[in-house]
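Page 47, continued from p. 46.
Same chain as before, 331 aa.
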Amino acid sequence: MEKIAVVILNWNGVKLLEQFLPSVIQYSPEATVYVADNASTDESIAFVRKNFSSVKIVQNKINQGFAGGYNDALQYIDAEIYALVNSDIEVTQNWLKPILETFEAEFKTVIIQPKILDFKRKDYFEYAGAGGGFIDKFGYPFCRGRIFDTLEKDNNQYNDNAEIFWASGACFFIRSVVYKELNGFDEDFFAHQEEIDLCWRAINKGYAIKYNSESIVYHVGGATLQQANPQKTYLNFRNSLLMLTKNLPQKKLFQVLFIRMILDGVAGVKFIFTSQFAHCWAIIRAHFSFYKLFFKNYKKREKNQTEIYFKTKSIVYGYYVKGGTVFADFI
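Result:
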């Protein structure tokens, strides 16, 4: 069994592999590097085989998104630790060393995220993960370094090794034994927030999730679905409701879902007033898909659901009403 496998999920991303794979190979001597190809139709596989003979390839037969793509590929990778890395991530020298040291020193820690900075503005945190993730009372995710679309400059304010609620799927380290215990990502999610769901399920089993600032990566972000894409809106709104259904404590479930649906309606009206009709329709589609999947996902609930799952009551209220823009405003 390998100590650590760096697994890059690829779908028609030959240009991203050309740009970012060299840094992964150069700075990952401790790991075996894999490209898990999600049924690409471009020249991705031929390119990797021709230019990077040390990289192992796992070919999925069909594209099942982020969740199903990793679930399919990781069946064929035998390693103690999986490092799941987006194809638009630039890694840095010694990025794996502090992660491996934390796993060896802290048995209860099963998932770790590095510091994720913006590839385009390297002194700013990046949207997907930043300095470690949390959710509010109504299931809205936010990060140390990112509240909604507002990003903080990296002034070393999160140079620590802190316990967090969720780690970003953009660069996500997990013990393979725990990944298997949790049955991997939930494939109903397809993409977006499946990593938050997985982290929540891990916490419900008593495990810890950490952020390690000594490991630094740079993320382009939006390489698969741009932030303004209505499909991303659809997946985020639907998957957030699915995640709450699966993981909220029973006594809070229906109250929170009801309030969340009202807030989603408000978001839809806001999209109408800003002439973003496709995004309003995406929220409507998300809700109908959620209704269809509700009972299936309700049955997935674990016996134990953690009561401590949020840092603040509502980032919607704190951000849009009180004007908070940085993580310190919400704790």
